[in-house]
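Input record (one chain):
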Amino acid sequence: MKTAMKGIFILSLLLALASAVSADETDKDSIIITGHIIDLHDEGVDEAELKVLVDGEAYKVDDEEYMTKSAPEEGTYCAEIELEKGMIETSKISLEVSKPTYRTERIDIEEFAKKDNEYITFKDVILGRAIGPAFYIAAAVLAMIYVLIAFEIVHRTIAALFGAAILLFVTYTMGTFDSEFFVISFEKALHHIDFNVIGLLMGMMIIVGIMKATGVFQWMAYKSYQAAKGRVWQLAVILMLVTALTSAFLDNVTSMVLLTPVIIEIALVLRTSPLNFLVPMVLASNIGGTATLIGDPPNIMIGSYAGLTFNDFVIALTPFILITLIPFIGMMYFMYRKKYGEVVVEDVDALLKKLREEYKITDFKLLKHSLGVLSFVILLFLTHGVLHMEVSIAALTGASILLLISRANISEILLNEVEWPTLVFFVGLFIIVGATVETGVIGVIADLVKDLSGGSLTVAIVLVMWVAAIASAIVDNIPFTATMLPIVGYLSQVLPGAESMVLWWALAIGACYGGNGTLIGASANVVTAGLAERAGHPISFNEFLKVGAPVMFVSVFLGTIYILIVF
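The corresponding structure, as predicted from the sequence alone:
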């Protein structure tokens, strides 16, 4: 009997507690505020901090201020609080959104959709940029790095690492105590490193490193010289055309990784500086790479963002690229005719015989395997639009297969064939440019393009192309193109006539041709400079600038005329 009474008592107590909890729950209203946080370019802003204010006071949970953050997916957020029942009708609910380098926004929530004891509202928040210390620090570091590289005060890799380190150091020292000095977080720095580019370069460097052991590059040097019949200028033209064509169907970075050893071999045979061939070749690679979707990294980014196919690029840009090659070759003749004229080969036949004997393919089996793997990688590049496979995956897959087949010494390949200073330079550069994106430096340029267009498609075309060209020459065309994508996408929707995709072609020409402007303007330039430096023939910033800048301005001018007439 006592046991039964004890059981009834415990059951009654549990029911009472359950009733009390239920009553407590129904005595409160749940408020859910959700939506997107975007910037002025309609891009999602992640990691923005949100506070819910009740009658101007921050809502607290256990005496701690309630705070949530926006997520990476388009800046989505969800803030949920609970108030005593009936308070929502008498209280002023506000949402405060803040993030370093952005203006803090406070919005009042006046309307809710009610379901049972839940009040739900959807509210999008637009954050404008705040130009403060972080903005100026990022801009100053970018300018400083550019000066260090341009005047060759230190090695470009050291300059890039130094700049990235300064930005992160400032963030985690001064930025810890004052958000105005928060430039870029470590997580964001990693996010801005384009590992697709890094992986592509590493994979192709490994493939080329293994192929070098077959003697194929020396053999190609012999065949090129044989085709030119010993005439240096004709040889240079052949190499420029081959480089442009190869860049269109591989990509300009891969082409220069493949061809740079060949060009150096040819120059050494002719007893002239490899730079007399290398600089024109890398300029030709950037021109040829503009012709197709996979020819230059900016084109890959544009095609992915705008939904453009391989054939779209071929139809729109290839005719112009073929036209551009004519004045380009003429400019190279004007600039290098004296240097080519200084090369004298007294007995062409004797030299050809010597080259044929010395520059032979030494491992046909490995060459066969290498060409098979390279063809497989190229096929993956060409099917990028169908498979949606990043080019780095294709390159690294091919590199790993070739390493297995060849049984090459991985330590020697990684140590001697992979250009680590070049890869580290890109890492530092991506972080620096990422900081300018995060703080709004590059966004200011993009906004300027939008405002200056004034609703005119013609003005927008000219601005997009020339701003892209000049900016790409300064900060590398890959990160700048990434910044311009939403701007061009927006302009393509609001400007009459832009539905023809003309602004995308203007961006492609501007970014790709702009890469010819400086040594750091395009990935192919940096990779070629790294390979040349390893071979003992460094390319100086100013030497490249003297040749590349005129080519950039002439080709972009021709591109402007082409786009305005054809489209």
